[in-house]
Structure to design on (293 residues):
């Protein structure tokens, strides 16, 4: 219960920060802004910004210094979801129990809403760097992590679309997901540590943790796509198999995927075992692995 309370508390902080960046003024692009708001405030676990905050808190307490990067990362994640749902990629009708953006508005508006979120994320971070003094170098390094994470996420998404309905090697499956899902998660953990001024040894340990939970996140998604509750997930179950997507469950079978998930989660926890105040991150790894949605 303590973990869930802390998780919800951090998510509430992110939701309040996100609302501060909604454009609600009357203007010619008002519907575009409504489209952005529709997806950005549609709920979600807020795992990525929470990872930024939590890795920072391993070293420092003034976590509000991470808020700009945390908001920017959630904007980027939302951009990726909007585009992922489009007819040219996954062609999904529902996300988090609601109509996907292109179904609620239209395809052109959804594309531009995603573009707007990605661009505004960079604007937020750049303005933060411009207005910074003593920690400017750390923020520039964190921006590099963010940008690299976006680049790798897009590469993973391409591999996913390219190999839909085709046989894929074990190596390509892991490559696809360590980029499509894992790259932003790794960037989040590293960004928090970099902003806190962590040394290279600490960042290396946290990177291993991040890589493991990124893979665990995807394996769990694949398992839920097979046996999850569509009402809890907010979208139909079985879509990946119907579309011929190669997942951990279709590649290795359900039981093997579950065992892989258990092993990888244990490895993630072991990677940060030497940090004194890592209980929340350890519990977060377990939450990612054993969630229902």
């Amino acid at each position: 219960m303590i973990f869930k309370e802390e998780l919800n508390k951090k998510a509430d902080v992110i939701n309040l920060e996100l609302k501060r960046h909604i454009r609600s003024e009357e203007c010619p692009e008002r519907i575009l802004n409504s489209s952005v708001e529709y997806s950005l405030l549609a709920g979600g676990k807020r795992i990525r910004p929470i990872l930024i905050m939590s890795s920072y808190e391993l070293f420092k307490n003034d976590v509000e210094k991470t808020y700009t990067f945390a908001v920017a990362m959630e904007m980027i994640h939302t951009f990726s979801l909007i585009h992922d749902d489009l007819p040219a990629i996954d062609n999904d009708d529902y996300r988090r129990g609601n109509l996907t953006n292109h179904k609620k508005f239209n395809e052109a508006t959804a594309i531009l809403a995603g573009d707007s979120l990605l661009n505004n994320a960079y604007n937020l971070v750049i303005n933060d760097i411009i207005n910074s003094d003593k920690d400017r170098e750390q923020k520039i390094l964190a921006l590099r992590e963010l940008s690299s994470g976006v680049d790798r996420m897009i590469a993973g998404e391409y591999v996913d679309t390219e190999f839909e309905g085709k046989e894929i090697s074990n190596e390509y499956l892991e490559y696809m997901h360590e980029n499509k899902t894992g790259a932003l998660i790794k960037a989040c953990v590293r960004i928090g540590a970099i902003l806190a001024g962590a040394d290279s040894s600490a960042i290396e340990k946290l990177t291993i943790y991040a890589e493991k939970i990124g893979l665990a996140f995807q394996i769990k998604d694949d398992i839920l796509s097979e046996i999850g509750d569509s009402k809890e997930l907010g979208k139909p179950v079985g879509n990946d198999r119907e579309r011929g997507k190669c997942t951990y469950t279709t590649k290795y079978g359900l039981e093997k995927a579950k065992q892989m998930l258990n092993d990888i989660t244990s490895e993630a926890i072991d990677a940060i075992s030497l940090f004194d105040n890592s209980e929340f991150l350890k519990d977060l790894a377990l939450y990612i692995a054993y969630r229902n949605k």
